[in-house]
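Two entries, shown back to back:
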Amino acid sequence: MMTDKRELLILGGGLVGMTLALAAAKKGISSHVVDRADPSELTAEGFDGRASAISTASWNLFRNIGLADALEPHGCRIENIAVTDGMKPGRIDFQPEPHEGTLGRMFPNRTLRLALFEAAKDQPLIAWHGSTNVMERHRGEHGVSVTLADDTVLEAKLMVGAEGRGSPTREEAGFTMAHWDYRHRAIIIGLCHERPHEGVAWEIFYPDGPFALLPLLDDGEGRHRSALVWTVAEKDAAGFLALSDRAFLYEIEKRMEGIFGALALAGHRSSYPLGFQHTAKLVKHRLALIGDAAHGMHPIAGQGLNLGLRDVGALVEVLTEGQRLGLDRGDAQMLARYEKWRALDSLMVMGATDSLTRLFGVPGKLSSVIRRVGMAGIQRAPILKRWFMDEARGMSGQLPELLKG
């Protein structure tokens, strides 16, 4: 039986868990990262067709921890977000001022994973434990530990639950969750299209759910590409997934009304159920939750990963400050500060997202008219528009240092 003691024990090596390990290492904080999967599986070509919108604040974080150079060539800049009610007249355009740069960048998840693993590989402060299961978790008076499937014991001062929505660490610690199921499913696929997207992300709202087109860089053969995230009712999902490629493409074309010209499918369709979940508390004795383990939200505003990256920035800042004051990594008051900082911000973002989902999901002609009147109001109200854009760029609220420019 072997033990190896570090400061953080990060359970879950996905995008948020790995970013935490790297951000902590930049501040001289060592960690163990444990994941059931192997990096080669997580970065395999077909593993995850999803793409993520990285907000301005999250991009600052990547730049501050030294990932920007590796990522820059692969990111597609989001120059504008067009919001429309079923392609009817009266769309809103969110376009930043020239001096503000972009609204964010779109990256394939695989690209983000590769950059994170590549950076972590040469970082002595990060010990990676992949393809393994946690058999036992222990949080004691002076530290924490886990026993892995091969009887290895890993020890640290603070445990961090970062395994995503179904977090076993959170479940075992008995956190209470508020959650509801939207009874909707997101279908994800890449599209190649005839006309360039010009950096525009489209959010088209239909009564059966939002239809989002997210700009990606042209592929190696110069074809214009976007990622489609299409929300459908759970009862209709199996039918849409079973359609032939040709019939599926026809359904997409019908909803896009020719904005990008001729279309072709790129890659395979994948899908996942949508729900809302949020823990009122984010910390317990020597334990902190980050990312989807703490809050899982609707992908409508593309803010799920960005919310997790704000958790990372806040936790690292609180830990660094604690270090300066000579506090233990698991100090209860320090963790309470992290919880207070993040709980309100994440609930605000999630509440706004949830309201948007419900507002645009109300069927009928009258509700469509009301929505379009509201959208026209936002289009003409610079203060409201500015608020929405700051939210999209992740530049609102009390920002952790690592997420500032």
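entry 2 starts here
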Amino acid sequence: METLSVDENASNEKIKDAIKAQETPEFYSDAQKYWDNIPATNDGMLGGFAHISKLDVGGSDTFLKLIFKMKNPPGHSRAVDCGAGIGRITKHLLSRHFGKVDIVEQCQNFVDQAKEALKGHKKVGEFYCQGLQDFNPPSDTYDVVWSQWVLGHLTDSHLEDFFRRMGAALKPNGVIVVKENVSSSGEVELDEEDSSVTRPEKLLLQIMDQAGLRVLKNTKQNKMPNGLYEVRMICLRPKSADSSNGTTV
């Protein structure tokens, strides 16, 4: 794994070169090849850490309940699970809180497994087999856009674009929820095996700000096993929304 600094004193040219390297066609095609060869199981989705699934869902459930207690909270009508894999989050979390949940996943074998696992589930809506860099839902569609452990597969520029599109797709009082690993070194860590990056929290928040989003809540996922990245759960709303809709935590 190669690490590239994003500290204020780091070389701007080095950062630009890193971003340029991410924006080659191989950045996405290599990720596609990697995930196409991963088993469509919880263990495959969680990199061999299937045992943390209950802990992960429990932390997310608590966070989502806090969001619903905010002033001017999102509704419970429709959510979208971005980078849904085999539908683990849809099945165990989002379907408990929303009338309909759409699924976005670029790997066809994961989509097929999600359809099988969720067959007959009345709360499952549309399946979109595409990368998040291409996902562009209509405006006024979702109460909550949920993305988890997937945004490292987007380049910085595509991530900013994704946030802008998702902000535009929200219903009134809607929010975007991001659950992602963050690096503790202040550096962008590039994983050549799965063609992804792990960003420091500072950079992730910077991209969100540039996309016109403001943070309503920002919480750490607790009790994760030692040796894993810190996981942040961040709730966002477009800055254009009424500033009284939530408070930063």
